[in-house]
Amino acid sequence: MTGIWHVNGSLASVFCGLLPMTAALCGIVFLGERPTIAPGIALACVVAGIVLASMKEKRRRR
């Protein structure tokens, strides 16, 4: 986690948000865990949150 000191806060939050998804995918691939619907929905919410947070707001000119 020392790499967080070298990037800005928005990029660090994306990486922290992706940690649970990476752990779940590693569990599925390397440990043979079976994916279920509840963690799938939770991971979809994490991805949607990251996408929404990283979208740039369009500003109107006055």
Automatic annotation (TrEMBL):
Q: Name one GO cellular component term.
A: membrane
Stretches assigned to the EamA domain:
3-54
- One Pfam family name is EamA
Which key words tag this protein in UniProt?
A: Membrane, Transmembrane, Transmembrane helix
Q: Name the Gene3D superfamilies on file.
A: 1.10.3730.20
What stretches pass through the bilayer? 12-31, 37-55
Protein name (Swiss-Prot/TrEMBL): Multidrug DMT transporter permease
Q: What is the lineage of its organism?
A: Bacteria, Pseudomonadati, Pseudomonadota, Betaproteobacteria, Burkholderiales
